Amino acid sequence: MNVVTLIGNLATDVELRDVGEDLQVASFLLAVNRPGKDEADFVRISTWNKQAEICAQYLAKGRKVGIDGRLRSSSWEDSDGNKRNSIEVVANRVEFLSSRGKEEAADIPFEAPTPA
């Protein structure tokens, strides 16, 4: 079973990129507080397609969100020949838990399928 649920605040603004024909990915870091401590874990989050566009449009550093998704790991070799690994959460659902300001009437939760 590969299921992740997180609540935290964006530690970075959303970066939206085109990665192919009609394919977009948005990524950001999510700061998730550790219970009972003044520390946080920083988790890379990615979203795809329409959900990516909505996140890029409405989210910014500091906003609180809930994430449902799955872990995805990747490995590669950097330019110096060192092996690198990373783990990110691919969001199936992003729920906006704080508003941008008074001009935003309601948060827009969005659920969309993501590529494998």
Walkthrough of the structure:
With 116 residues, the protein is mainly beta. It has one domain: Beta Barrel (OB fold (Dihydrolipoamide Acetyltransferase, E2P)), CATH 2.40.50.140. It is built from 1 helix and 7 strands, in the order E-E-E-E-H-E-E-E. Strand 5 (64-77) and strand 6 form a beta hairpin.
Structural class, from secondary structure content?
A: mainly beta
Helix content: under 10%
- CATH class, please? Mainly Beta
Give the CA-CA distance, first to last residue: 15 Å
Using brief descriptors, characterize the structure shown.
mainly beta; single chain; disordered C terminus; 116 residues; OB fold (Dihydrolipoamide Acetyltransferase, E2P); 1 helix; globular; 5-stranded mixed barrel
Briefly, what is this?
The protein is mainly beta. Helices cover 9% and strands 54% of the residues. It has one domain (4-111): Nucleic acid-binding proteins (OB fold (Dihydrolipoamide Acetyltransferase, E2P), Beta Barrel), CATH 2.40.50.140.
